[in-house]
Amino acid sequence: MSVESTPVGSTLNENFESLMREDRVFPPPAAFAARARIGSEAEYERMYKRSIEAPEEFWAEAAAELEWFTPWTKVLEGSGPHAKWFTGGKLNLSHNCVDRHAKAARKDKVALLWEGEPGEVRRLTFAELHVEVQKFANVLKSLGVKKGDRVAVYMGMSPELAIALLACARIGAVHSVIFGGFAAHAISDRVNDSDCQVIVTQDLSYRRGSEVKLKKIVDEALEKCPGVRKVIVYQRAPSATVAMKEGRDFWWHEAMAAAAADCSAEPMDAEDPLYILYTSGTTGKPKGLVHTTGGYSVQTYLTSKYIFDLQDEDVYWCTADIGWVTGHSYVVYGPLQNGATVMMYEGAPNWPENDRFWKIVDDHKVTVFYTAPTAIRAFIKWGNDWVHKHSLASLRLLGTVGEPINPEAWMWYHREIGKERCPIVDTWWQTETGAILIAPIPGAVATKPGSATRPFFGVVPEIVTKEGDPVPAGQGGLLVIKKPWPSLARTIWGDAERYEQAYFSEIPGIYFTGDGARRDADGYYWLMGRVDDVINVSGHRLGTMEIESALVAHSKVAEAAVVGRPCEMKGQAIAAFVTLEEGYEPSEELKQELRQWVAKEIGGLARPDDMRFTQMLPKTRSGKIMRRLLRELATTGEVKGDTTTLEDFGVLAKLKENEE
Ligand code: ATP
Ligand code: MG
């Protein structure tokens, strides 16, 4: 098996020291709170308390807002890696996303609102989506796909991608989405790892003005995938441009034309697998997590409802690709279960120009906008003029996910995009957790720039030492989640042992996140960086986030990554990699200026020893900084670690050239 996981936490450090002082607080704007689902802190506190004191009652009530074919007999059974939710219950997530709305008042409401990169717009109502999903479910069945079979999906951001997922869920096939930007070998690794026999793809997709030839890449990948029997090809281009292999490849539109329009949803056991998804690969080789049906449905439903405060008039846009867990939980399953109108955009944020996102917001009157810090830092770099060309008046709520957001980037988002009117929900979670675990309830919890704030209902985070002892407020340590929650991934595909090893063995029986964090005196959580990335300077353990945020707070810095490299004197020295805002040039003076700046902002201990300017930082395809590659580079001058999910291979070569 070539896609396998590396155990996390192998370089576990104990407490982190926190150097950052951030004391700005933003209470929920009164106008927002007045019409929010949860509009006061007291109400959040009351619901949170109940969710912890009577979790089974709390989650049962949430589950009862969905439709079940057979009620569960037990809400929660077992604990740690063996916790099971809603046992005995039968439901279908596709039914809850589509049928539930299509048969009722929302049937003519737009479910998917899609814009292609070249500019076409498509709208599918819940009733129309219902037909498409049933038809495609029948197509899958006609190709011999049965409940429990794995179906790989390698597509661009088209409505058909969402339809493919909902169709798999409908018949109980386990989908394994492979991000549409991955190369052939990443596809074959994943297809073989989870033994997929069918793959759904498309001829091409449009990105930054060019064609991404998905089917061609699939053909190459399948040379190494003897198990794949059938390939379904959605035609995105105006006319067919790809080679089709007789007997193996089928056109989506031809198969759909022949398919019956009704296919009832398979009653799935709450613990039946729903999908497999590989992590981003920020800290090592991607892990294939398995999510199951009941708990995942309930928690993605409830978090979408409260954290995005979804209301019937909302036009909700999460910019994540469906190739990532954010796209699974918060483009498709969470919002659709809530009957929301979901905006989907096919292409790049800077095509044809740097203001494409803001144009989409205005054109479609987007109300809730959810993106990643990496995107926000890019918008800042491109300059405010692009933003100011648009009104953004429809927006009422903003969100971020994927990395800690640097406080200065948060402030920019708040000011320039939210016009100081929209709360920001900084949502902390992981592929493994299935749903958001820490984030503000926007009408109830005051926000602080750079903090994911407080836990969602039913979630009990704790900051501990590596022995599992709680650390005092204000001190950094390991972030663990103490009690079970419904949407946790149940296993790593084909490797139950590794699952327990990676997540439940560092602190026996307790879920270990691999992230470092601190909790402040108000009970707010501040993510400090990956435990694997902690830098040990003269016996002081520093997270990466605070030093990076200090750098980003400098007016000439666009992005920063810091890593430790061995140093005889100090144990580790701090190496900073910095990209500059447009209009500034690297210089020796600027290096000194930035080193001084960090020392002044957060203390001499954090002053970077090395300062390197670079055009770009190495990132995963999901936009996260890959510090482990920088650390290798700073330490040995070479990179040997897993780079399968690296966004741009040219970056490493460039960084090496810059080595002094
Ligand atoms: P791998 O597990 O393969 O190394 P990954 O951890 O990047 O990859 P994901 O599951 O996509 O894969 O990312 C989850 C991680 O992203 C979290 O553990 C955390 O480090 C980071 N993260 C996500 N959201 C936030 C947030 N709001 N604040 C801080 N960190 C975040
Ligand atoms: Mg991870």
TrEMBL record:
Keyword Acyltransferase tagged: no
**What range(s) does the Acetyl-coenzyme A synthetase N-terminal domain occupy?**
44-97
Q: Does the keyword Ligase apply?
A: yes
Spell out the post-translational modification annotation for this entry: Acetylated. Deacetylation by the SIR2-homolog deacetylase activates the enzyme.
Looking at the record, the residues that make up the AMP-dependent synthetase/ligase domain are 101-490
What is catalyzed by this enzyme? acetate + ATP + CoA = acetyl-CoA + AMP + diphosphate
Domain AMP-binding enzyme C-terminal intervals: 546-624
| EC number(s) per entry | 6.2.1.1
The record lists CoA as bound by R207, R208, G209, S210, T326, N350, S538
Q: Which residues bind ATP?
A: G402, E403, P404, D426, T427, W428, W429, Q430, T431, D515, R530, R541
Q: Which amino acids does the record list as binding Mg(2+)?
A: V552, H554, V557
**Segments crossing the lipid bilayer:** none
Task: Explain the purpose of this protein.
Answer: Catalyzes the conversion of acetate into acetyl-CoA (AcCoA), an essential intermediate at the junction of anabolic and catabolic pathways. AcsA undergoes a two-step reaction. In the first half reaction, AcsA combines acetate with ATP to form acetyl-adenylate (AcAMP) intermediate. In the second half reaction, it can then transfer the acetyl group from AcAMP to the sulfhydryl group of CoA, forming the product AcCoA.
* Name of this chain's protein: Acetyl-coenzyme A synthetase
Organism field? Granulicella mallensis (strain ATCC BAA-1857 / DSM 23137 / MP5ACTX8)
Question: What does the record give as the organism's lineage?
Answer: Bacteria, Pseudomonadati, Acidobacteriota, Terriglobia, Terriglobales
